[in-house]
Design brief:
By secondary structure, this protein is an all-alpha fold. The protein is built from 19 helices and no strands.
């Protein structure tokens, strides 16, 4: 990157024998036991790395044990469940800074943009925007991995507002580097997952989901194979995050933030499982040439998709992205494998899901994503399968005709 881009300050001198929390926050630890001054002030747990002690030798201190990243048991969670890293610590892409230093003015600009613009369509209700803004800011200042997630999505959003190619690329690269940093921090912070910290982990998971799907749509892959490979990787990543935070879901729902997460959940649960999807695709999955296990997977994915289409829109903002990607994450894991194999029946269901995305096209995260995905699938499937995707195509064309008519009326 050019010298005029992100400039980082020189690192401060760190304590070698400090607690894991201070090391994670990149601040000097006074090494007091059982809890250091920083952790007492922040009212957080103060875990010291095993093997570190004031009496440890200098040689041992120069090689401290790394934060647990393979197996760890959270303080209040089910001890039978292990926490493992979602992905190997990723290497920073070529040409992108490894953001290991403190945040600078560019990050402050991105943070300001996130709070004032990016976060607005994330909740389902406009009345929840201020609560979300306060909650995410509070937790981001306590958890650096969440701050990285906030800045990553904010930088990606900023890039979409810029016309200068260099500035656009600069903020997209910054967004990628921040996401990498956030995922590393998330993995390293898993031992700290508790009832007090679970909200930060849930918020980070949501931000990663939005950024991942937005980046996938923005990439505009012309190869259905490359697109599906990236889509299934994204789904697997989010499934991994979801499995880690799910034991803490009930705890999180009792917080103020939880009230935002349950909007529409009852309506979605009670939505009818019959309708246009089941009526038009039942023949395909009843008589199609497939294994019994695949048929069962498709039936479950179809049932969930029908409920999503039947569920009334509980948002009061036309650009809200609330729960819009939930179908992809809650379908059976086997459906993801069928997508990866480019099974036509799986692609048909994905083409129908594109209608849901298209209904949320006013969101900066989605925009023309629904039409893009449908067009990609239609070309790949060819005329043999056009019968099975006729309804979603008609919905997209109907909206296009309405849009053109409204433009003509304004002339």
């Amino acid at each position: 990157m050019s010298s005029r881009q992100v400039v980082f300050r020189k690192r401060h001198r760190k304590s070698r024998l400090g607690c894991a929390e201070c090391k994670r926050r990149h601040i000097r630890c006074d090494e007091s036991r059982p809890s250091c001054l920083n952790c007492r002030s922040s009212k957080v747990s103060c875990p010291y790395l095993r093997g570190s002690a004031h009496a440890a030798s200098v040689d041992n201190a120069s090689h401290p044990q790394q934060p647990a990243s393979s197996v760890a048991n959270p303080p209040a969670a089910d001890q039978s469940q292990t926490l493992s890293p979602l992905i190997p610590s990723p290497s920073t892409p070529a040409g992108i800074h490894d953001l290991s230093s403190d945040f600078d003015a560019a990050h402050l600009k991105t943070f300001y943009h996130f709070l004032n613009e990016t976060c607005r369509p994330i909740p389902a209700k406009s009345e929840h925007v201020e609560l979300y803004r306060r909650t995410v800011a509070c937790h981001a200042f306590q958890h650096s991995f969440l701050m990285s997630g906030v800045l990553a999505l904010g930088a990606l959003h900023l890039s979409t507002t810029m016309t200068d190619t260099q500035d656009k690329d600069r903020y997209r690269n910054l967004s990628t580097a921040l996401l990498v940093k956030g995922l590393r921090g998330f993995n390293e912070s898993l031992p700290l997952l508790s009832a007090d910290t679970c909200t930060a982990f849930v918020m980070f998971a949501h931000l990663v989901g939005l950024q991942s799907f937005c980046s996938l749509i923005m990439a505009k892959e012309t190869s259905v194979g490359k697109f599906l490979s990236q889509l299934t990787q994204t789904i697997n990543l989010l499934r991994g995050i979801r499995s880690i935070i799910s034991p803490w879901w009930d705890t999180m729902l009792k917080s103020d933030f939880g009230s935002m997460m349950v909007v529409g959940s009852e309506e979605r649960h009670n939505a009818l499982e019959t309708g246009v999807v089941s009526e038009q695709l039942s023949e395909l999955f009843t008589h199609g040439d497939m294994s019994d296990s695949a048929r069962k997977t498709y039936d479950e994915a179809l049932r969930r998709l029908q409920k999503e289409l039947n569920c009334p829109d509980m948002t009061d903002m036309d650009d809200s992205t609330f729960a819009v990607f939930s179908w992809l994450i809650t379908t059976p894991p086997e459906f993801n494998s069928l997508l990866e194999e480019r099974r036509p029946e799986a692609l048909v269901l994905l083409a129908w899901f594109a209608v849901i995305l298209h209904q949320h096209r006013k969101s900066w995260i989605i925009r023309d994503g629904g039409r893009y995905i449908f067009d990609l699938i239609e070309v790949h499937l060819g005329s043999r399968w056009e019968k099975w995707i006729a309804w979603p195509k008609a919905q997209l064309l109907l909206d296009q005709d309405r849009y053109q008519a409204s433009r003509n009326d304004r002339k």
